[in-house]
Write a structure and sequence with these properties.
single chain, Cytochrome Bc1 Complex, Chain D, domain 2, mainly alpha, 48% helix, binds heme C
């Protein structure tokens, strides 16, 4: 398998790879990983637990997180997140196209384990 960026290929667990994806795609420009520190987007501290509560279990938490990342407007329409002026998310909806499947899976592993 060839990975364009090498972000996932270069060793470590998928969680560590996901952390690199988070950095490489500048998620941190809008999201803090510290509880209570909201930026343009909400803090992602404990987002895995939040996803599990919102969606009703660990299995569905992953689907919830996936949707939050690849289709933020859809998640908004479902009412799971904050409402915004004009109904459009300020989170870019370009990540589904930008992330390789391996990068997305690693990113979800990382998000699910955030304390
Ligand atoms: C330009 C700012 C911006 C960037 C860059 C961004 N996000 Fe977001 N994100 C938001 C906003 C704003 C929300 C709040 C919900 C909404 O508007 O849809 C959000 C919501 C989320 C949520 C749902 C959190 C919750 O508790 O509701 C997750 C998960 C998430 N983003 C992950 C990511 C990841 C992973 C990346 C990088 C691949 C990323 N975001 C990049 C702005 C951003």
């Amino acid at each position: 398998m060839t990975l364009a960026s090498g972000a996932v290929a270069c060793g470590g667990s998928t969680v560590a790879a996901g952390e690199r994806v988070f950095r490489d795609y500048h998620c941190g420009d809008c999201h803090s990983l510290k509880a209570g520190e909201d930026g343009v987007g909400p803090s992602l501290a404990g987002v895995g637990d939040r996803a599990a509560r919102a969606s009703g279990g660990a299995q569905s938490a992953r689907a919830w997180l996936r949707e939050a990342v690849v289709d933020p407007n859809q998640t908004l329409a479902g009412g799971a997140h904050r409402a915004h002026r004009g109904g459009a998310s300020r989170m870019p909806d370009s990540f589904e196209a930008a992330l390789t499947p391996a990068e997305l899976q690693a990113l979800l592993d990382f998000l699910q384990t955030l304390p």
